[in-house]
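User: Sequence in, structure out. Go.
Assistant: Echoing your sequence, followed by the structure tokens.
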Amino acid sequence: MGQHKAEKAGGYEADIEKYITEKQGVDVKHSKADDCRGRQEGVSCYISDDPAAAKKSLRRRIRDQISCLDPSYCRQADQRIIERIVSWECFRQADTVFCFVGTDREIHTKPLIQAALDLGKKIAVPKCVSKGIMEARQISSLNDLAPGSYGIEEPLDTCRIMPPGSVSLALIPCLTCSRDGRRLGYGGGFYDRYLESVPGIRAVLCRGSLMEEQIPCESHDCLMDAVIWEEGILDLRFPRYTAGSDG
């Protein structure tokens, strides 16, 4: 398939890189690390002498891949991912859904958020509040979103805070992920910290062309309960079952 350069979101990525450089002094306590890792035992992991450096190298490579993705592929993959989620039983049964708002280079989740709102679900959207820390706020419509930290659309300050303990299903972004539930984000640690307090299902969304066989890991990395891409949903709570998979 011919690939064309996608428009770069340079400002956003520059801000993320600046944040990652500045965050070296952030002290984070993972009070529920054992619970968050959950399936750590028995899950294959790419062990590196320097996992932080391995992650940085992988982030650089995946960003290059993203910049070369065919826009038509992205649109089709995003649509299929949303269709998978909307028909997924875990989504249908969830009362409160936590969902990110995709940036230009991420999966476009606004149609998914609107679908959840139309179904009467409570929707919690992340909002950055300080270095490495975010909270979720409930929105009642897409009009409750406005550009916030790093140019990412966030809930307005008037939206009420949604406790992480009330989240039934968390839909999480990534740069890349593996089929065993490991994800690689931008390196800020926002989601790993937040997810420690989320009792519901944690699902990572990724376009299939960006998925990796192995992801370098560290002890604080939070494993996902499900992996969702355009070809299906791999529910890792039931390792042999893939919902809606073609073939």
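User: And one key feature?
Assistant: The longest strand covers residues 122-130.
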